[in-house]
Design goal:
Length: 113
């Protein structure tokens, strides 16, 4: 099986209602960073069944890791444990999943962070 892209799916739930503004501020900054990051093919977000999901597609895992370890995304990761809970999954695939598949993939394969 050929693996052409690296897919990253996150799903987060805010711990308390008063964390929502901080969550969205960091989410918007992180999304802007992802969309402009070297190696990013696409990045989008949706709320499904009360879970705030991101779906990003990368040329390779190294490009995704470079994004994770710098700028607003790194800042958000440091803050995350105090304001949200969630799971992540990353994998090689021939193409990105459809949004209709994202929540099920996350439930089945996600790793708690």
């Amino acid at each position: 099986m050929q693996h052409d892209v690296y897919v990253s799916i996150t799903g987060l739930q805010v711990r308390r209602v008063w964390h929502i503004p901080t969550f969205w501020l960091h989410a918007m900054k992180s999304m802007a960073q992802a969309r402009n990051a070297p190696g990013n093919i696409s990045a989008d977000a949706r709320t499904i069944n009360g879970v705030h999901h991101t779906l990003s597609v990368w040329t390779d895992k190294d490009a995704m890791r470079a994004y994770l370890t710098a700028g607003p995304r790194l800042e958000a990761m440091r803050l995350f444990p105090s304001i949200a809970t969630g799971k992540v999954v990353g994998y090689l695939a021939p193409k990105a999943p459809e949004w209709s598949e994202v929540h099920a993939i996350w439930l089945d394969r996600g790793r708690v962070v």
